[in-house]
């Protein structure tokens, strides 16, 4: 296959389903385009055009569901018809309904052949019917389409949209849609009908789907740290509010930063602006302490941070705020999973490479307010505001 031209390559994708399956399998395992193209013996650019045309999404597999007649069953129908058996007898032998056999014979018989049943023709027609273009659910329903588009513009993730639909339309099956359906409608915008601009509102802002990649953290260590393993037991659970996780989002060229502090029980978020040009250790303490002091004492139980050196004055922060600080292990972001997830969401507002110094504290407060009004799956799609307010009222 090596040396195929562009036209030949595109034809290959249509005619070689095994190679297509091999492509998506290798891509799902993180193989590079160059490696996949070399293995399949195809031009890399042709393969990448094919992937882009699919929106980075693996084509749906067409395995025959159990409810569909197989080709073997169609051959048996032909043989039993030759033997003179009735539709009811054939249905009993195959474990099918008589009406199924009747419709199958009617569809699979050709005019001009005295109504003789043709299993090969019936099988081909079955596959043709399955492969015909089918409308995606979201653009086919104006009400569902409008709701999904509005929530995407409000920066809700597809998973949050699915949960919120279940919460706000519990008895309306028309408003049921899966997360994957939303992603397919976004990535296949040419067919799906959602605005092309909405791809920029997904967390990654990508126009096609890429395999997940894991970043590698390389932070240094500090002295005098108290390990996250020494936190009280209640901090490990999410039954009591007041336990927070924090980190920095770094801006362009590492010259600017924003502090993010998230409450574990409710996912409530606070953002703090670090003064640009100031020593980052001092800037963090001066920005963070006032935010912590504003909280009720019952919400100042603990703060878990990574081992970034910006927290070198952690003892002073504890003295000034009354909040104990614990440090996660190196290369263990799952010990601050709430904060890590929130920082990923915040990249919708502050993409990598952004100069964060242009944002005022008022700007950050507005972003935090919007985030705190987002429904969350872990909260049964209530919002952080609703969750924390309900607990405080109790």
Automatic annotation (TrEMBL):
Pfam families, per database record: HTH_38, rve
Domain of life: Bacteria
Spans annotated as Disordered: 107-127
Gene Ontology cellular-component annotations: cytosol
Gene Ontology MF, one: transposase activity
Keyword Methyltransferase: no
Domain Integrase catalytic: 237-392
SUPFAM superfamilies: Ribonuclease H-like (SSF53098)
InterPro entries: Integrase_cat-core, IS30-like_HTH, RNaseH-like_sf, RNaseH_sf, Transposase-Integrase, Transposase_IS30-like, TrpR-like_sf
GO biological process: DNA integration; DNA recombination; transposition
Keywords annotated in UniProt: DNA recombination
Name of this protein: Putative transposase
Source organism per UniProt: Kocuria rhizophila (strain ATCC 9341 / DSM 348 / NBRC 103217 / DC2201)
């Amino acid at each position: 296959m090596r040396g195929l031209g562009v036209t030949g390559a595109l034809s290959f994708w249509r005619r070689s389903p095994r190679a297509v399956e091999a492509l998506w399998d290798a891509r799902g395992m993180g193989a590079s385009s160059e490696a996949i193209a070399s293995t399949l013996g195809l031009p890399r650019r042709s393969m990448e055009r094919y992937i882009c045309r699919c929106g980075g999404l693996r084509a749906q597999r067409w395995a025959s569901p159990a409810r569909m007649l197989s080709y073997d069953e169609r051959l048996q129908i032909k043989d039993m018809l030759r033997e003179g058996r009735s539709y009811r007898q054939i249905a009993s032998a195959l474990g099918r309904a008589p009406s199924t056999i009747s419709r199958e014979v009617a569809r699979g018989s050709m005019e001009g052949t005295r109504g003789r049943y043709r299993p090969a023709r019936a099988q081909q027609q079955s596959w043709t019917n399955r492969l015909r273009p089918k409308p995606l659910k979201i653009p086919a329903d104006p009400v569902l389409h409008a709701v999904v588009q509005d929530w995407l513009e409000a920066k809700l993730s597809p998973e949050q949209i699915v949960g919120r639909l279940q919460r706000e339309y519990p008895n309306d099956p028309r408003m049921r849609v899966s997360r994957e359906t939303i992603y397919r409608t976004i990535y296949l915008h040419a067919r799906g009908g959602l605005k092309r601009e909405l791809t920029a509102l997904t967390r990654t802002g990508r126009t096609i789907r890429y395999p997940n990649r894991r970043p590698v953290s390389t932070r240094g260590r500090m002295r005098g740290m108290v390990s996250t393993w020494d936190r009280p037991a209640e901090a490990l659970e999410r039954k009591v509010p007041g336990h927070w996780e924090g980190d920095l989002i770094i801006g362009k060229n590492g010259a600017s930063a924003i502090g993010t502090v998230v409450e574990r029980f409710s996912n409530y978020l606070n953002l703090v602006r670090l003064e640009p040009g100031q020593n980052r250790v001092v800037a963090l303490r001066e920005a963070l302490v006032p935010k912590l002091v504003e909280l009720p004492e019952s919400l100042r139980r603990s703060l878990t941070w990574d081992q970034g050196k910006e927290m070198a004055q952690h003892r002073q922060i504890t003295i000034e705020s009354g909040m104990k600080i614990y440090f996660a292990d190196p290369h263990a972001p799952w010990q601050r999973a709430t904060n890590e997830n929130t920082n990923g969401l915040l990249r919708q507002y502050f993409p990598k490479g952004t100069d964060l110094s242009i944002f005022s504290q008022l700007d950050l407060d507005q972003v935090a307010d919007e985030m705190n009004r987002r429904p969350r799956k872990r909260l049964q799609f209530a919002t952080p505001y609703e969750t924390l307010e309900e607990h405080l009222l109790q």
